[in-house]
Amino acid sequence: MNDKLNNYLNGVFAPYDGVKSVTELKADLLSDLQERFHELKAEGKDNETAFEMTIESIGDIEQTVQEVANLSRSLERQVVTNLSASNLVKSDFAGVIAHKGKFEGSALPGSDFTGADLTGSTFASSDVREAIFDQANLTDCNFSTLDLSHASFHKSILVRTNISKSGLDGAKFKDVKLTDVKLTMNDLRKTIFENCIFDGVEFKSCDLGGVCFDGQTFIGVKFDKSALNNVTFKDATLKNVSFPVSVLSKKYYRAIKTICFDGAMMDKLTYAALKGMDADLSKVTVI
Fold first, then answer.
1. What is the tens place of the pLDDT at every residue in 144-178?
2. CA angle at 278 for the pair 274 and 280, rounded to the nearest 5°
């Protein structure tokens, strides 16, 4: 009867031969079925009755096996990708899953990462000019020492993403919510931000001279030692936003005075901090 149980399972599992997790499930299930069969026999059931009751006890096993196989195959596709030091000009990576991928020292200009899941991936010392990251998942990604000029980040997922020491001339962030993102030592003077929400973002030692943040939302954002000459926050919303500065930095105070806050809305603490630095808040609404 053990052979009969084994043959039954072989038939159920045949379409998923080679899927590791399914193979392990089959071995565990066979052991459980054999134990159940012997229990029924000990209760006085004949072989055929015990076999039928044993099979019925596992329910819709075919659906369970299919679900396990699909999950396993999905996880197997999420292998670590190492494409460092590669010539990948205008490569098509749209829709790929590449968790913790490595793209270091690679030529990636014009490459398409639309809709890709790049969670935890590293891009370092690479040419990524005009690359497309539209709707890509860039959670926990690290971008360091890159040429990202004219790269596109339309509706990208930016959560705990780190971007440092990179060129972003003409790079465009549109319809993006940046959550706990860190931007460190980047020249952002020619970077384009449109319809973005900045939540918990830190701009550290960045050059933001002349950047337009009109109509956008800032929550818990820190502009730490960043150049802010002639930045505009027209009609923007600022809540719990800080502009830390050394008490000796007269240059920073002068820069604050050049920022345009016309039509902006801000909470009382943000308003008080900026007022203390002599920012022009004459057309600001306190919320």
1. 999 999 999 999 999 999 999 999 999 999 999 99
2. 80
